[in-house]
Amino acid sequence: MSDQRDDGPRSTFDPAADEIETNYDEVTDSFDDMNLREALLRGIYAYGFEKPSAIQARAIMPSCTGRDVIAQAQSGTGKTATFSISVLQQIDINLKECQALVLAPTRELATQIQKVVIALGDYMNATCHACIGGTNVREDLVKLNSGVHTVVGTPGRVHDMITRKALNPQHIKLFVLDEADEMLSRGFKDQIYNVFKFMPSDTQVILLSATMPEEVLEVTKKFMRNPVRILVKKEELTLDGITQFYIMVEKEEWKLDTLCDLYETLTITQAVIFCNTRRKVDWLTEKMQQRDFTVSAMVVLTSTLYSTYLYTLYSTYLYTVYSTYLYTHYSTYLYILYSTYLYTLYSTYLYTLYSTYLYTLYSTYLYTLSIVLTSTLSIVLTSTLSIVLTSTHTSTYHYTLYNTYLYTLYSTYLYTLYSTYLYTLYSTYLYTLYSTYHYTLYSTYLYTLYSTYLYTH
C-alpha cells in the first residue's frame, strides 16, 4: 500500500451530462436484509429508522461491499445515514486509527454528520471526531493522537491535520465527499485534491451530491474506479413522501390573500413560510397576525430581541464597572496630584507674600514706636536697650502670630477652592472621557458579537 495515491485517471466512464444515468438498480427494502452488524442494526433502529429510504435502499449495499459510489441525493433523503452506515459496517473497532474520512462543505454539516455517526455506532463503541475550522487546533491534535475510527471535517482543517502528521491517512478505507457540488462551488477544489493525494491507492470513494455539474463529474473521473452510479434526472430531483404543488399568482399583492385562502382551505397545524427578504418576513408576520393567525418570525425577530437585550445588559454592566473604576482611579490620582501642587504653590506664595508684608509692617511700626518712646522719654542707655529688646520681642511675637494666622487662613482657603475646582474639573473630564470610551468600545463589541451569534443561529 503506497502512502499517496496516483493522480492518474481512475473512472472508466465519460462524464458527459447526456450519458449520466443509473447503472445499479438493486434495491434492498429492509435493513435486516443488508447483512449488517448486529450492534449497527441496534443503533439504526434505536436512531428511529424503520425502513430504508430510496437512496439508502440502493446505495448502502454497494457501499458496504467496497465499490466506489456516486449517489445523487438531496438533503432530507437520508444520505447522511447512507454513508454513515457504510462507514460503520467496514471499520475495525479494535483498530484505534482513522479508517474513514468524510469531507463536508460547512462546519455545521460536519458537526451534524459526526452526531449521526456517533448515534448509529452507539452500540459499537465507535468513535468519531469533527475536524473543523474555528475550533482549538490543540484539541484536534490531542483527539487525533488518541485515536478515532472516523474523522469528519472541512477540507482546510483536515488537510492541515494531515500535514501536521496528526491525522494518519495510511489506514483510511473510505473517503466520503458529502455535498460535493456545494464544496466545489465554495472553492474547495484544490484542498479536496490535496487531501485525496494522501489517501492509500485502494481507498474506496463515496461521493454524494444534489446536482452533477461539470466540476463534480471531473472529480468522479479523477478519483473513482468504475463507480456505481445511483443518479436521477434533474426533473426528478424531489423529496419522496412530500406532496408538492404550486399556485400561479399574477400580482404580488394577491399573494397574501392566496396564502390565507390556503390556510382556510387546508388543515395546517404547522408550517414554515419562506420569504426572500427580511423586510418581507416582517411585513407578512404583521399582516397575518392582523388576520388572527398565530405567526412568529424566526431569526429576524429573535435576533433583534436577544441582541437588543444582550446589548443593554452587557453594555450597562461594562459601563458601570469601567466607568466606576476609571472615575475612582483617575479622579483620585488627579485630586492628589493637582491639589498637592496647588497647595504647595499657593500656600508658599501667600506665606511669603503676607508674612513678608506683615513682618515689614509690624516690625517697622514697632521699631518706629520704640524710637519715638526712646527719644521722648530720654531714657538712659539701659532703659533704651530694654525698649529695643522689648520692640524686638514684640515684633517677633506679632510676626509669628499674624503670619501664622494668615498662612493658615489663606492657604486653607485657596487649597480648598482650587483643589476642589480642579478635582471637579479633571475628574469629571476623565470620568466622561474614559467611561464613554470604554462604554462605546465594549458595548459595541458585545453588541456585534452576540447579535451576530444570535442572528447566525
UniProtKB/TrEMBL annotation:
Domain named DEAD-box RNA helicase Q: residues: 29-57
GO MF, any single term: translation initiation factor activity
Catalytic activity: ATP + H2O = ADP + phosphate + H(+)
Keyword field contains Transmembrane: yes
PROSITE patterns: DEAD_ATP_HELICASE, HELICASE_ATP_BIND_1, Q_MOTIF
Helicase ATP-binding domain boundaries: 60-230
Enzyme Commission (EC) number: 3.6.4.13
Keyword annotations: ATP-binding, Helicase, Hydrolase, Initiation factor, Membrane, Nucleotide-binding, Protein biosynthesis, RNA-binding, Transmembrane, Transmembrane helix
Motif mapping: Q motif: 29-57
Entry-linked InterPro entries: DEAD/DEAH_box_helicase_dom, EIF4A_DEADc, Helicase_ATP-bd, P-loop_NTPase, RNA-helicase_DEAD-box_CS, RNA_helicase_DEAD_Q_motif
Record has Transmembrane as a keyword: yes
Transmembrane segments: 293-312, 332-354, 366-389, 409-432, 439-456
Enzyme class: hydrolase
UniProt-listed PANTHER family: ATP-DEPENDENT RNA HELICASE DBP3
Family: Belongs to the DEAD box helicase family. eIF4A subfamily.
Name assigned to this protein: RNA helicase
Organism: Bugula neritina (Brown bryozoan)
